[in-house]
Amino acid sequence: MTMKLGTVISGAVIGVASAAMMLAASTAAQSQEFNLRMQTHYAAETVSGKLAQGFIDNVEKMSGGRVKIEMFWSSAVVATVEGFDAAAQGIIDGEMHGGAYQTGKNPAFQFVGDPMGGYDDPYQLYSFFYYGGGQEAANALYEQYNMHLVGWWTGGQEAMSSSKPLRGPADLKDWKFRSPPGLETEIFAEMGASPIVMDFTEVFTALESGIIDGADASSLANNVGLGLYDIVKHATYPGFHSMPIDHVTFNLDVWNSFPDDIKAIFDTATQALALQTSMTIDIANEEAAAKLKADGVTLYDWSPEDRAAFRAGAQRAWDGWAEKTPEAKALVDAHRAFLRKTGKIE
């Protein structure tokens, strides 16, 4: 077969032109700049606020300045519980609150906000998210609300504070404690405790007067800062019952507008934030534990058998929540598949 010289040259010119156009398009995408507005409930000067600022710094550095983030601290634009909807509606571009604030929207958010009784530490939780199908299962929920979940960051298990010993599940019987509403009250009630939902500002008076025996407040280090162990002298540590999760999210349309390299930068920065948060809180808790022991506070590290008993009780409560919506069932199923795979449940 013989081709004319003009045809060959014409084809070559078209090929070069096409390559040039593709290169120009790629260069344009890589030079595109993004000025983003985000909100978090943390104040800039808190430990978590400083960690969030580190996330911002990492994104801006890794993007070579192509991404600029204006963070609204202390829920300055809308109330914390409204941050998710504000991002979904385009009032802001993204938010760093937590999924648990959205359980009123869909009970499934409980299992992206605090899958109580599921995991022992943040690293198991992150393993589920990145290697156990968690990211896909969570985004199946988030994207229904025009949002994209980039990732999670958590300080780890909270500690129970008590005026009485908490050596194991048997000590939960008739134990009166301040509890947040929802799944936690169901789990502890099923195990024989007497959870009382009250405003956090009432905890100190209730402990001092004996209205309650203990409280679920925060991490061990935060509880020290709150002054709880000036009143009570018993605590669970390392914790086992509750690991609240903060998240990094974006409006879905905004997320889809990012080129792949920007998406990768946000993913990498979120993983760094997760690890740095967990390590920072780990250190603070260990320092607090050493000081509390020296001050005469007794810390209870539940045995693997006792933790398994609590997890079994939590699973029974999960059953009821899985029936609330199809999305809740899908997330419960995803968690359970991973927990079975890793030998945490049968």
Q: In angstroms, what is the radius of gyration?
A: 24 Å
Assign an overall shape: globular
What is the number of helical segments per DSSP (H or I, 4+ residues)? 13
The assigned structural class equals alpha/beta
Describe this structure in words.
The chain has 346 residues and is of the alpha/beta class. Helix content is 49%, strand content 14%. The chain has 13 helices and 11 strands. Strands 7-6-8-5-9-11 form a 6-stranded mixed beta sheet, sandwiched between helices. The protein has a 5-stranded mixed beta sheet with strand order 2-1-3-10-4. α7 (183-190) links the parallel β6 (176-179) and β7. The longest helix has 35 residues, at 260-294.
Structural key phrases:
346 residues; D-Maltodextrin-Binding Protein, domain 2; 14% strand
Element layout with pairings:
Elements: H1 5-31, E1 34-39, H2 47-62, E2 67-72, H3 83-88, E3 94-95, H4 110-113, H5 122-131, H6 134-142, E4 147-153, E5 160-162, E6 176-179, H7 183-190, E7 194-197, H8 203-209, E8 214-216, H9 220-226, E9 234-236, E10 246-251, H10 252-257, H11 260-294, E11 298-300, H12 304-322, H13 326-341
Parallel strand pairs: 1-2, 1-3, 6-7, 6-8, 9-11
Antiparallel strand pairs: 3-10, 4-10, 5-8, 5-9
Helix pairs in contact: 2-11, 5-6, 6-13, 7-12, 9-11, 12-13
Quick recap:
With 346 residues, the chain is α/β, with parallel strands linked by helices. The protein has helices at 5-31, 47-62, 83-88, 110-113, 122-131, 134-142, 183-190, 203-209, 220-226, 252-257, 260-294, 304-322, 326-341; strands spanning 34-39, 67-72, 94-95, 147-153, 160-162, 176-179, 194-197, 214-216, 234-236, 246-251, 298-300.
